[in-house]
Every structure is written in C-alpha cells, then in structure tokens.
Design a protein that fits this description.
Layout lengths: L8 H59 L15 E6 L3 E4 L7 E7 L3 E10 L2 E12 L20 E5 L3 E3 L4 E3 L1 E4 L3 E3 L4 E2 L3 E3 L26 E2 L2 E4 L6 E4 L3 E8 L3 E8 L2 E20 L2 E16 L1 E2 L2 E2 L4 E5 L5 E4 L3 E3 L1 E4 L4 E4 L3 E3 L2 E3 L3 E5 L3 E17 L2 E15 L2 E5 L23 E2 L3 E3 L1
Parallel strand pairs: 6-9, 6-31, 7-10, 7-31, 8-11, 8-32, 9-12, 14-16, 15-17, 16-18, 17-18, 18-19, 19-22, 19-24, 22-25, 23-26, 24-27, 25-28, 26-29, 27-30, 28-30, 29-30, 30-31, 31-32
Antiparallel strand pairs: 1-2, 1-3, 3-4, 4-5, 5-33, 5-34, 13-14, 20-21
C-alpha cells in the first residue's frame, strides 16, 4: 500500500469553493443593482409621461382660450408662433422656456397645422409627446351647421333642434328656442322665450378621439388578475389606483369603493369594460380623470359624486361601445360624457351633472331625475323628456318631445361647453384659422 500526502488538497478545495461563492455573490449584487436601476427608471418614465400629458392639456387650453378666440395675448408676446411654456405640477406652468423644469412646451405653426411638443423630464429621463393639429378653412355659411368645426350654436338658447319640438301637458321651455321645423304645443305647454324658426339647420358630430396607446398594463396582484380589477369582494372592498393604466375590465360590486388618485395632473385610464354593478368611483386630488371605455359601460352607483362633493370638471368619459348607457335609481354622475354611438337613458331619480355629447339616435330623460347639463349635444337624437323632470342647461337635438311636468330651463354654463379638443375645427378665430382632428405621436 502506498500512502500519499493529501494535506494540501483540502486547502485547494476550500479556495475553489470560496472563489465560486465570490463570483456568485458579485453576479447577484450586479443583477440586484441593475434591477433596482431599471425599476427606478421605469417609475421615472411613467412620471415623465404624466408630466408630458399635463403639458399637452395646458397647450390645448391655451389654444382654446387664445387662438380660437382671435386673441394671442397669453404667451404670444409678439402675436406669432412659436411660443414656449415651462413649469412643474407644484408651482404651475408659466411663459418662457426653462430646461430645468419638469414640463416644457413648444407650440409651433405652419401653413397647414399647429404643432404641440410637450416634454416631461425627471433627471436624465424624458418623454416627448408630439401632437399635430391640422387647420381647416373657416366656416362662412353662418347657418348653424358649422361643418368641420365647433357648431354655431346660439349660446343664449335653451333648445336648438334641426327638426320639430313637441310639448304636451304642462311641459315648459324657459328660454329661447331655435327650431328647424315646427313647435307643437297642447294643454298648458309653452315656450316662454323667443321662438326663432330657421330651416336647413344641421349639426355634425365631433371627432371621437383615438384610444391612447402605450399605457402601462397593471401587474398581476390581488385584486388584479390578467388586466381585470375586481373591487368589493373581501378583503378588497376599497382599492386605490395611483397610476395610468390599460385594463381589460374594471368591476365594482357589493358597494365597493374605487378611489382614483389624480394628484394635480391628469390620470388616464383605458378599459374595455367598465361595470359599476354596485359601488362608487371617487377622485382623489385636484387634477383630472379621463377614462376611455371601449366596449361596455354599466352604471349602478356613483362616479365622482360622493358625500355631495361635486366637480364635473374633474372627469371625462369617452365611451366607444354600442350598448346603451342607463343611469337609474340612485345613480349619481358628475363629469362630461362623450358617447360615440350609444343611446342614453337617465331615469328613476338618477342625478347627472356635466356635459353630454352623443352620436346615438335616442336620449331619454324621465322619472324625477335631476339633470344639469351646460350642453346636451345630441344632433342625431330624438330627445324625449317625460314625467317630473327638470333640466337646467342647453339642448341641441334632431327633435325634442316633452310630456308631463317637464321644465327645460336655460342656464349659461359655468365652465367650457366642450373641455376636450374633440372638434374637427372651429369657425371662430381670426388668428390663423381653425382646428382639425389632433394627430398624436411621440
């Protein structure tokens, strides 16, 4: 038997193991550091997108309030383009460019279009949103059709129709009327203001916006699975959304509460199906909520209307589905609603505060409802109002019928009739034409 000296072999093995462990530890630390940096960068990217969208909305407001009115005073120092703005969420956006701010905006003009460039920036991360707004020739017909632009609606009229108005029972229109057909009344029904008959009235629908792309998909974690958010089932009776998102479905049941934190900017949600089967959507923050609903909108509860806190300027719903929308019973809605083609019913004591724009053929309001609409714009619809209803605001429709104890009372809107830039162009303005449909890019 030959005995070998193995005293050094154990030491060699220990050194090899230690070297392997050091390599593994170094690799793990490098991966963890990389993942942390990627997470931080992803968060910054979402925030810069949010800042850039806030800048676009600011630019829309500037153009609506200045360019379309023929007034280039705000930010247009010499009455011409380009113009620059910069700022942040906390302190606001001001005239001038400052590359150190979170939000930087440039508005340009050429012969055929206006161009908005909005940059959101945090440290070395930035996001550019680029919007082209085609111009179109101004509308000179003066006849109310406003083809291709904001329609020429007489703003001092309670009701404007391209066809007939029929009032029966004790129905009343308190305010002026412009009618393309005839006004028929029976019983004690009446229109207390002036009645102007104008044939050939037509009103077009505005452009329904494209659904936003590039919104983050919500990760899988309770109560969200595969893009479906379910609020109301234990233990998720109350849930909060803090980021923009693209969802397959949002469902609220069992008197659940969904809070959507908008902060001081604009929160954007895209969802195929929004079903408030029983529950509430509340807005947290001073900013604005914009929801794009593609296929289904079911309402049984409240949206932006909780504990008598109402600010319709904080919410806009764009609904592209064909299924009818119904507000019934104790439903409460405070916001602007743009329905591409769906018919709308408000009945059974439901409460609605905000603008309505619809391309559907029927709008029905009945049963003791409370409706305040700076503008109900339904150029293709027969608007049927019946049974103990008071509507405050203005109505544009194909035809209107009122029966029972109905009051339609002219009220001048306390905020913009159409807060979103949804019109193909404008017939107002003398400072370079009018707006076409926005074309988004980045």
């Amino acid at each position: 038997m030959v005995l070998k000296n193995e005293k050094g072999s154990g030491l060699i093995m220990v050194l090899v193991v230690m070297a392997v462990l050091m390599v593994l530890a170094t690799t793990f630390l490098a991966l963890a550091s990389t993942e942390g940096k990627q997470t931080a960068r992803h968060y910054k990217k979402l925030q810069t997108y949010h800042y850039a969208m806030t800048g676009v909305e600011f630019a829309f407001e500037i153009l609506n309030n200045n360019y379309l009115e023929g007034n280039l005073s705000e930010g247009f120092t010499d009455g011409t383009f380009p113009v620059y703005f910069s700022g942040n969420i906390k302190e606001g956006i001001k005239t001038g460019i400052n590359n150190n701010e979170n939000i930087m905006i440039e508005i340009l003009e050429n012969e055929t279009e206006l161009i908005i460039k909005s940059i959101g920036k945090i440290d070395d991360v930035d996001e550019l949103i680029y919007v082209k707004i085609p111009k179109s020739s101004s509308d000179e017909d003066g006849g109310g059709n406003g083809v291709g632009g904001i329609p020429n609606i007489p703003l001092d009229q309670a009701v404007v129709t391209s066809g007939d108005i029929t009032l029966v029972g004790s129905s009343r229109i308190v305010g002026g009327v412009t009618v393309g057909g005839n006004v028929y009344t029976t019983g004690t029904a009446s229109a207390t203001g002036s009645i102007k008959q104008q044939t050939g009235l037509t009103f077009h629908m505005p452009t329904f916006p494209n659904y936003p792309n590039g919104l983050p998909q919500p990760p899988n974690h309770s109560p969200i699975q595969n893009g479906v958010l379910l609020v109301g089932q234990y233990p998720y009776q109350h849930y909060t959304i803090n980021e923009d998102g693209d969802y397959s479905k949002i469902s609220i049941v069992s008197n659940g509460i969904l809070d959507i934190n908008v902060g001081e900017g604009t929160r954007i949600i895209r969802v195929k199906e929004l079903e408030i089967q029983q529950g509430h959507i509340r807005i947290q923050g001073s900013g604005k909520l914009v929801i794009y609903v593609e296929d289904q909108f079911l309402m049984n509860g409240s949206m932006n209307h909780f504990n008598n806190v109402i600010n319709p300027q904080q919410m806009t719903i764009f609904y592209g589905g064909n299924n009818p929308i119904e507000f019934n019973g104790n439903d409460m809605f405070a916001g602007d609603l743009f329905s591409k083609t769906a018919n709308i019913t408000i009945t059974g004591g439901a409460e609605f505060v905000g603008n309505i724009v619809t391309g559907g053929y029927s709008v029905s309001v009945s049963g003791g409802t409370k409706v305040k609409v700076p503008m109900l714009y339904a150029p293709n619809s027969i608007v049927d109002i019946a049974g103990g209803v008071t509507i405050e605001g203005r109505i544009v429709a194909k035809e209107l019928t009122g029966s029972g104890n109905v009051d339609i009372i002219y009220q001048d809107g306390s905020y913009n009739l159409f807060p979103e830039l949804i019109w193909e162009s404008s017939s107002n303005g003398t400072s370079g034409g009018s707006f076409g449909s926005p074309i988004w890019g980045n």
